[in-house]
Amino acid sequence: MQCPKCNSSMEKVKTPAGDVDRCVSCKGLWLDVLVHEDIKKIAADVDTGDVETGAKLNTTDQINCPACPSSKMIRMVDPIQPHIWFESCPTCYGRFFDAGELTDLSERTLGDFIKSFSVKERN
Ligand SMILES: [Zn+2]
Ligand SMILES: [Zn+2]
After folding, report:
1. Ligand nearest to the CA of 66
2. How far apart are CA 7 and CA 78, in angstroms?
């Protein structure tokens, strides 16, 4: 499988909730059948990428599904955290998360708080 954002190869990462694919370059994550609760459990283990790289690639939203390349992925917004956008395939229901997004999604408002704090510190 190739990363739909940067065209690098994806590696399989084993988790207690099942295998996920992670890009060797941008560390974007491809999840197929995982449910929301599973995502929270595995986020800390698999979401190892650089948040700034993920944020840059998040602006790339015209991508094809890496599992069924004739399908265009559609941008979804998390209903609880509308600042998180991810891409979902309308055919296989796979989802692509940029680096940092899975952790963000799993941490809810606490993550939002920490992020705004660290951004302020950096400036
Ligand atoms: Zn990539
Ligand atoms: Zn697909």
Report:
1. 2
2. 25
Q: Which ligand is nearest to the CA of 10?
A: 1
- The alpha carbon of 119 and the centre of ligand 1 are apart by a number of angstroms equal to 24
2 CA from centroid of ligand 1 (Å): 8
Give the model confidence (pLDDT) of 8-52 as tens digits.
999 999 988 888 999 999 999 999 866 667 777 888 889 999 999
Residue 109 host element (H or E): helix 101-122
Nearest ligand atom owner, CA of 3: 1
Q: What is the pLDDT of residues 42-93, one digit of tens each?
A: 888 899 999 999 999 988 878 999 999 899 999 988 787 888 888 999 999 8
Written as six digits, the tokens of 4 are 């739909």
Q: Which ligand is nearest to the CA of 88?
A: 2
Predicted model pTM: 0.80
